[in-house]
């Protein structure tokens, strides 16, 4: 990452690895930040910093390239999330068995187990985000008068009237 301080580099790295949680990434990268409120504010500022945004974009590109090289694509991710949501998983588990002579031995066997409910909820949230279910609806607002008013010169009543006019167009 170019032109970033060590703390900014650490912030980007943590942000990318923790599920894009700016607050926790900031708290860990900037260990001297004792206030949660300051961490939230500064994480928000950091995520508006052009250098940091560029570093995140580069890192995302690296992750996508690596995923493609490993054969992971959207279809595979979606299929795996659906498996977690809908079914069981098969794991190899060492179990004790008796051999032909009656001696106890450890044998690896495939065992079906249900997914942890937390994993199922996480998979549902992730899948919903991927398919856009949590995306806000976009509303295009057009008004007859294309010039933006100067709010600093408007009275409270004029601002309220303008607000009603905007909301009516949604």
Describe the structure.
The structure is a single chain. The protein has 170 residues and is α+β, with helices and mostly antiparallel strands. It has a domain at 6-69: Orthogonal Bundle (Arc Repressor Mutant, subunit A). It is built from seven helices and two strands. The protein has a two-stranded antiparallel ribbon with strand order 1-2. Helix 2 crosses helix 3 and helix 5 runs antiparallel to helix 6. It is elongated.
List the helices and strands and how they pair.
Blueprint: H1 6-17, H2 22-29, H3 36-46, H4 50-69, H5 74-86, E1 88-98, E2 104-114, H6 117-130, H7 156-168
Antiparallel strand pairs: 1-2
Helix pairs in contact: 1-2, 1-4, 2-3, 5-6
List keywords for this structure.
alpha+beta; 170 residues; two-stranded antiparallel sheet; Arc Repressor Mutant, subunit A; single chain; 54% helix
Question: Which structural class do the helices and strands define?
Answer: alpha+beta
Distance between the termini: 42 Å
H/E order of the elements?
A: HHHHHEEHH
Assign the CATH topology of the domain at 6-69: Arc Repressor Mutant, subunit A
Helix content: 40-55%
Mean pLDDT: 85
Biggest sheet: strands side by side, in what order? 1-2
Return residue spans where pLDDT drops below 50 for at least 5 consecutive residues.
Answer: none
Do you know the CATH architecture of the domain at 6-69?
Answer: Orthogonal Bundle
The percent range for strand residues is 5-15%
CATH class of the domain at 6-69: Mainly Alpha
Say how many strands there are.
2
The description of the largest β-sheet is:
2 strands, antiparallel
Number of helices: 7
What is the CA-atom radius of gyration, in angstroms? 26 Å
Q: Write down the overall geometry.
A: elongated
